[in-house]
User: Fold this.
Amino acid sequence: MKTQQVNLGIDIGRVIMAPVIGGKSDTSFLSGGINQAMATAPSPGAMQGIATLVNQFGGRVWLVSKAGPNTEHKTRLWLEHHEFYQQTGVKPTHVRFCRQREEKAIHCRELHITHFIDDRLDVLGHLVQCVGKRYLFGEQIKKQILPANITHVLSWPKTVEQILLDLKLDGHYEHRTF
Assistant:
């Protein structure tokens, strides 16, 4: 039995695209031109994993990303170029940008986000008062001590597995056909 509606928030950079691999971050999206940005690959398994989560969360999935105007523009083009919305089921109106990392908390409160995936521990720290389930995504460039209430997930398959498990344990899991 569901007791509360669950909503998912997902960061974009180094989560949906250009993940850290082998201790190195792909910076061509940020430093290159439009062509280089469009050539930036999605994180392995991101499209399929997000589609699974969109289904499980009943479409209540938002992208919440910190970006300046230029990066926001390139990101919107990248999402269209890679047919992100068609592949995942995320609605184009479910994309939010902010200029400072701590401002992600404003969006999460407004959207009633209950689960959030980000590659930065400091961002997840800003969400401690408003998001119950926080996931640190991917390889980390530096060693960090994780608080007990943050789950480290290395890949999209592991992220989906962990979120589905958390939903089931919290009584929010609905078996859906994928």
Observations:
- The chain is about 40% helix and 15% strand.
- The domain at 8-169 is CATH 3.40.50.1000 (Rossmann fold).
